[in-house]
Design a protein that fits this description.
Blueprint (H helix, E strand, L loop, with lengths): L1 E7 L7 H11 L6 E7 L1 H4 L6 H17 L7 E5 L5 H9 L5 H5 L2 H7 L9 H4 L1 H10 L5 E3 L5 H18 L7 E3 L32 H9 L17 H14 L3 H7 L5 H29 L1 H28 L5
Parallel strand pairs: 1-2, 2-3, 4-5
The chain binds tryptophanyl-5'AMP.
Length: about 325
C-alpha cells in the first residue's frame, strides 16, 4: 500500500497556486493509500517571521486542510514541530547531502539571491535536508507537490539511494507526483512569475473576499491579440487563466480552449472568476467554521501522537543502521 506524504509551509497566506497545485489533491489520495499531511512550521523559520504570524498561519493551514475534505479518521494531520523525530532524523541525514548540491537548488538560489552571505541562515541552505527527512520518516512512496518542489524530492531520492547503498535497504524511495493541470500557477499581474505567498501583487489568497477575487481576475494581465488560446510563450496571461479554469472545472486545457473559442477576453475572465468563486466561497465558509470551533486543535493533537509513533519506527531503523547505540 502506498504511503502519501505532503506539507505546506506556514510562511504566508495560502494562494490559489497552493490550492490548485497541491492542497486540493491531498483528499483524493485518501482512497489510494495511507496519507500523512503536515504543517511545515520548522521550515517556516528559515526566513524571518513574526511569532504571531507564524502561529496564525499554522492555524489557518490546519483549518484549510480540514476544509479541503481531509478526514482526520483516515489522514494523519499534524504539526512538524510537534513530532521531534523530524529534527532527530535530520541530524543524521544531513551528513548525506553535500554543499554543492544544496547550492544548486533553485529555491535556495531564488530566496538567497538578494542576500549577502552573512545574512543567509544555515536553515535556509539546509532546507532540503529537513524536507528529505520529512519524507523518508514515514516511508513515503508518493509525495504530491507542485512543480517548484520536485527538485527537492529528486534530492531526497538521491539521498535515499546514497544512504541505502551504504547501509542496505533502510529508507523507502519516494517519488513526486505533480498534477496534470496546474502544477505551476503564475502571478496574475506578471504571468512570467510563479504565484507565491510572499508576493501579494497578482496573487489570489484563499482568504481573499469574493469582491477582491473577482476584481483581481478581471484586471489580470492579458496578452496582445484577442484569441483565447493556450500558448505559454506568446500568451502567458491567457494561458495561466486557462490553466486555472481547466483545473477547477476538471476538464483538459483543450476542452477549455474549445469552450472559449471566439469569446472576448472580458467574457472569458468573467467565467474564470465565476469558477474560482464557486470553488472558494464554500471552501472559505467551511474554513471559518472550523477555525472558530477550534476542532482542529484536537485533530493536531491526535495527529502528532500517531505521526510520532510511525516516525519512531523509521528513526530507530536509521539509528541502528548507522551505529548509534540502541540497547
Ligand atoms: P510551499 O508551502 O511553498 O507550497 C505548498 C505546495 O503548494 C505548491 N505550490 C504551487 N503549485 C502550483 N502553482 C504555484 N504557483 C504553487 N506555489 C506553491 C508547492 O509546490 C507545494 O506542493 N517545501 C515545501 C513544504 C514541505 C514539503 C515537505 C512538501 C516541507 N517538507 C515534504 C512535501 C514533502 C514548501 O515550501 O511548499
Amino acid at each position: 500500500m502506498d504511503r502519501i506524504l505532503s506539507g505546506i509551509k506556514p510562511t504566508g497566506s495560502l494562494t490559489l497556486g497552493n490550492y490548485i497545485g497541491a492542497l486540493r489533491h491531498f483528499r483524493d489520495f485518501q482512497d489510494k493509500g495511507e496519507v500523512f499531511i503536515f504543517i511545515a512550521d520548522l521550515h517556516a523559520l528559515t526566513l524571518p517571521i513574526e511569532p504571531e504570524t507564524l502561529r496564525g498561519n499554522s492555524r489557518d493551514i490546519a483549518a484549510f486542510y480540514l476544509a479541503s475534505g481531509l478526514d482526520p479518521e483516515r489522514t494523519t494531520i499534524f504539526l512538524q514541530s510537534a513530532v521531534p523525530q523530524h529534527a532527530e532524523l535530520n541530524a543524521i541525514l544531513q551528513n548525506f547531502l553535500y554543499m554543492g548540491e544544496l547550492r544548486r537548488m533553485t529555491q535556495f538560489k531564488d530566496k538567497s539571491q538578494k542576500m549577502r552571505d552573512s545574512a543567509i541562515g544555515l536553515g535556509l541552505f539546509a532546507y532540503p535536508s529537513l524536507m528529505a527527512s520529512d519524507i523518508v520518516l514515514y516511508d513515503a512512496t508518493i509525495v504530491p507537490v507542485g512543480e517548484d518542489q520536485t527538485q527537492h524530492v529528486e534530492l531526497a531520492r538521491d539521498l535515499v539511494g546514497r544512504f541505502n547503498s551504504r547501509y542496505g535497504e533502510i529508507l523507502t524511495m519516494p517519488r513526486a507526483e505533480v498534477t496534470r493541470v496546474g502544477k505551476r500557477i503564475m502571478s496574475l499581474s506578471d504571468p512570467t512569475k510563479k504565484m507565491s505567498k510572499s508576493d501579494p501583487k497578482g496573487d489570489i489568497f484563499l482568504k481573499d473576499d469574493p469582491v477582491s477575487i473577482r476584481k483581481k481576475i478581471m484586471s489580470a494581465k492579458t496578452d496582445s491579440g484577442s484569441e483565447v488560446r493556450f500558448d505559454p510563450v506568446e500568451k502567458p496571461g491567457i494561458s495561466n487563466l486557462l490553466t486555472i479554469y481547466s483545473a477547477l472545472s476538471d476538464i483538459t486545457i483543450e476542452e477549455a480552449e474549445k469552450r472559449f473559442e471566439g469569446s472576448r477576453y472580458g467574457d472569458f475572465k468573467k467565467a474564470v472568476a465565476d469558477i474560482v468563486l464557486e470553488t472558494l466561497v464554500p471552501f472559505q465558509e467551511r474554513y471559518r467554521q472550523i477555525l472558530s470551533s477550534g476542532e482542529y486543535l484536537e485533530v493536531l493533537h491526535k495527529g502528532a501522537e500517531r505521526a510520532s509513533r510511525e516516525a519512531e519506527k523509521v528513526l530507530s531503523r536509521v539509528q541502528h543502521a548507522v551505529g548509534l547505540l540502541d540497547e
